[in-house]
Recover the amino acids of this structure.
């Protein structure tokens, strides 16, 4: 019998909201308001003396097609001892969904603006999927604010291949109708990003809730189309610049946690990070997929807690 979950799951209509019991916060950007979670000691309006680890800040950066809901269990597990900040990119999650085209460079600008506005320091970057490139881009812009890096299945370099499952989503008509009309990318992600588990109905509902209409799925489509396939694409150069900067972060403690069954950010992506960061602490989960925090939630929480609160 599998162990009981660390955070019991509620049931009933809109039950996903019970899995995400965080107060909303808003940050004004030029294109709209960014929603973010800010929990734990040291957050705005709290006393830094609430806990001995009040100087620890965890910055959770999500990818596509997720939102800060992806980090709910890690935030619940760590918010009693560290400040947990988890933004939703514009167009994603509970943030505004403007009819504006964003690229990777814009996402980095937005995250840097939030980090500066909150004056985050002693930051441990926790990122996955597109969040890796976005978060690392921010860390390279504000290196003095970052203390550690922990990445789950991500990339921060120009891709040498695009999986067929994603390539079909980039076709001019079929892709847009599939992603924005039928929400196929988000729905497929619920099945194709895990290996050893199935998500419960309430968790699936939580992932899908913000992407409930054509207009609200624009960012999902944009993220897919922002994957560069040649140096002519504007995001290619941004990824090249981030990769060139990776060695400058090698002096930080770095932990890489990989689901080895990921068909998107494959083990080859982990190997590429290790070329830049040979000293990094790598943890490989043989039976986990792209959403390793869903395939192995208890193990991921333990690895993060040890990394931040009980460093060697």
């Amino acid at each position: 019998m599998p162990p009981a979950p660390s955070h019991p799951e509620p049931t009933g209509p809109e039950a996903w909201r019970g899995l995400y019991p965080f107060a909303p916060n808003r940050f004004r950007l030029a294109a709209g308001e960014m929603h973010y979670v800010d929990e734990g000691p040291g957050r705005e309006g709290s006393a830094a003396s609430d806990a001995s680890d009040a100087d620890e800040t965890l910055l959770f950066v999500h990818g596509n097609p997720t939102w800060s809901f992806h980090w709910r269990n890690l935030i619940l597990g760590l918010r009693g001892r560290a400040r947990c900040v988890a933004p939703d990119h514009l167009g994603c999650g509970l943030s505004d969904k403007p009819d504006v085209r964003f690229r990777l460079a814009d996402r980095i600008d937005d995250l840097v603006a939030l980090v500066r506005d909150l004056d985050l320091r002693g930051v441990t970057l926790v990122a996955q999927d597109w969040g890796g490139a976005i978060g690392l881009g921010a860390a390279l812009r504000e290196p003095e604010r970052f203390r550690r890096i922990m990445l789950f299945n991500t990339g921060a370099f120009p891709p040498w291949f695009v999986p067929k499952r994603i390539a079909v989503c980039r076709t001019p008509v079929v892709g847009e109708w599939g992603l924005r009309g039928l929400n196929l990318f988000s729905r497929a992600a619920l099945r194709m990003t895990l290996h050893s588990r199935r998500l419960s109905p309430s968790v699936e509902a939580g992932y899908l809730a913000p992407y409930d209409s054509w207009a609200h799925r624009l960012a999902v489509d944009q993220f897919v189309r922002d994957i560069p396939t040649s140096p002519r694409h504007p995001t290619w150069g941004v990824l090249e610049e981030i990769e060139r900067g990776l060695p400058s972060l090698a002096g930080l403690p770095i932990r890489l946690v990989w689901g080895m069954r990921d068909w998107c950010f494959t083990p080859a992506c982990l190997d590429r990070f290790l070329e830049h960061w040979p000293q990094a602490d790598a943890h490989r989960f043989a039976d986990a997929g792209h959403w390793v925090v869903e395939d192995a939630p208890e193990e991921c929480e333990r690895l993060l807690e040890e990394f931040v609160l009980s460093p060697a």
